[in-house]
Amino acid sequence: MKVTFTKIPQGESEHAIINAHERTPAIETAIGLLENGERIIMGVKDGESVPCPISKIYYIETVDDKCFAYTKDDCIEIRSRLYEIEKELDFRFFRCSKSLLCNIRKIKSVKAESNARMRAVLLNGEAVLISRSYVKEMKKRLGL
Prior knowledge:
CATH architecture: Beta Barrel
Number of strands: 10
Helix content: 10-25%
Number of helices: 3
């Protein structure tokens, strides 16, 4: 997609124009960012509430009925159920298994595993398994 930026004089009202064939999830996200800034998820770390921008999240996992969001070098607890979090996220995230959501933009590589599963290596070096029932969606999203 071609992006054009035009600098305007001080005092003139800022605005954005998007020319597209249809309103896709990516365009919805761009509109949300332009109107509201980056979306965040509130989490808890060391007893304190911590805001976490969703673009920084590599994956979200449920362990022992608790949800955790993992960033490049941090982990925060999110006090919501995984399905509730999934509803709040945008097109960058997809479900890998019953207990895991992954940011597709943080995937470094994918490899086929046994039992029709796949393993995704993330940019931070961690690996996550994609259950066979979610492989088709992941391949579609990655264009494989």
